[in-house]
Amino acid sequence: MRKTLMIAAAFAMPLTAAPVMADGHSEAPELAKKDWYNIVYFKFQAGKAGEAMKLIETFQAVDATLGREAPTGFHMNSGEWDMMVAFKMHDGIQEMGWASNPRGDEWNAELARQLGGEDKVREHWEKYFSLVVNTKSEIAHIDTD
């Protein structure tokens, strides 16, 4: 039954756009005024959150050097997660479509410069993720209009 409903919905989807196309609307709709965020939750190895925070200081130094606002981090006092970080999506929701984000490329280049090369970056990330048990990522927004 569920499969039949999914097939019917797939065929019906193009029909929802038919009245708009018939009225001659060819303009792209205005994007909603929203600030988009990638919210990432982290669970660290038992007793390793402090060590992880030391490695995160390197990431904060990159933001400072580039003159960028650092992501907002929250140290959790309840629940299953140790930390939640809100990364602003400066290019909006369309940032999810980048094959290679120019802001990210610039950030990665600065991290490599500060750490002394790509091998050091790889080691740094490996050390950091060795302290992470689990992560979860969600997309959220704040209405700005």
Explain this structure.
With 145 residues, the protein is α+β, with helices and mostly antiparallel strands. The chain has a single domain, classed as Alpha-Beta Plaits. 46% of the residues lie in helices and 23% in strands. The chain contains 4 helices and 4 strands; from the N terminus they run αβαββααβ. The protein has helices at 2-22, 49-66, 102-115, 118-130; strands at 34-44, 72-75, 83-89, 132-143. A 4-stranded antiparallel sheet has the order 2-3-1-4. Helix 2 packs across helix 3. The longest helix is centred in the N-terminal third of the chain and has 21 residues, at 2-22. It is globular. Residues 1-20 have low confidence and may be disordered.
Topology:
Blueprint: H1 2-22, E1 34-44, H2 49-66, E2 72-75, E3 83-89, H3 102-115, H4 118-130, E4 132-143
Antiparallel strand pairs: 1-3, 1-4, 2-3
